[in-house]
Design a protein that fits this description.
alpha/beta; Aldehyde Oxidoreductase, domain 3; 3 domains; 4-stranded mixed sheet; 3-stranded antiparallel sheet; 17 helices; 11 strands
Length: about 450
Amino acid sequence: MAELFAPEIIRRKRDGLPLERSEIEFLIEGLVSGAVGAEQAAAFAMAVFFRGMDARECAELTSAMTASGTRLDWRALDLGGPVLDKHSTGGVGDVVSLMLAPMVAACGGYVPMIAGRGLGHTGGTVDKLESIPGYRTAPDLATMQRVVRDAGCAIVGQSDDLAPADRRLYAIRDVTATVESIPLITASILSKKLAAGLDALVMDVKTGNGAFMVAREQSRALAQSLVSTGKAAGLPTRAMITDMNEPLASCAGNAIEVAYAIDYLKGERRDARLHEVVLALGAEMLRLGKLATSRDDARARLEQALASGAAAERFAKMVAGLGGPADLLDAPARHLATAPVVIDMRAKQPGFVTAIDVRALGLAVVALGGGRRRAGEKIDPSVGLSDLAPVGADVGERPLARIHARDDASAAAAVESVRQAYAIGDGAPAAEPVIVEQIA
């Protein structure tokens, strides 16, 4: 075989030619070892962004990235149930993971969820969990596996051991405007999930103005790529396309969303659209894991996990197992940070919410300090938005939102941003379904 050179491989992809497995593996191995430089990886990512990859190339890129690090093996733990996971492409108010993992655990599944940080206007599960004092989002693999065995779930960040090529390539994509490439997204997500040793995966692919894939056709293409590539790698995968034309929960912000998740698990508040997404994703996880015979059976089991308190108990055990306070569910206000400035804001005129610029709401949270504008920036866990009015709400009867800010100036700026994100009209529009499509 001719000797491989990174510039020649990049040139071939730049010119629209398909890459061989050996070429893809050479680039990924070089990315991890340092033989392929950041500028070459950036050029490769841009070439893929413009030229794409066929299904074989995408599967081989995923395989190479998975093989770049440790692959978890759960057989020695003799768990007695399937290893399952869910992944979302990100949105605003998407707090699903915090409830879904313990709910599935309470139904007999085991959920080692490798989660991410916030990106752009979207919130990150790892950032949310880091608002819990003491919670370790980067435990060693032995600790993570022990917590999965004992609590049934562990939500953590990506470790240095799992798919290191993805972590390095993603950091380059994030600063080179190549995030939205479907083959690169597919390989990034699935390499981490395959490395986690899963038995099945359910994907939540967002669509709408608050999603990275705004157009439904883009979301469908990504969902189909994830499902087909997952199956090709031997991982049973299903996807749902869900609506992100309004926030999923009625809040956005790190500690604020954790508090909401606790209330949800305890039955104190459950937004209808959010609850539907949680049940729909959970039902597919249970069915893929052969823990339920039908969707109706699966949904009934998930509802029972909530009603009995079993899901809340699993969440509490996970938090304590990863270093958080043992009494978090009993006394969340004692542990979660609260903002010094909290104000209710109202619309300037009466009427009904006819549309929401969800991306603008997410950016308002970032501007408050609840997200990052540059890598490594410190996040304020206490700030954000709550009590967000949904589409169709009568804002003559209620506030548009409650602002949680660190000072009066940032609160005032958020008021204007949030007010501009809402369209108010004379009548309430027809409700749109939150589950748009299922891809199997």
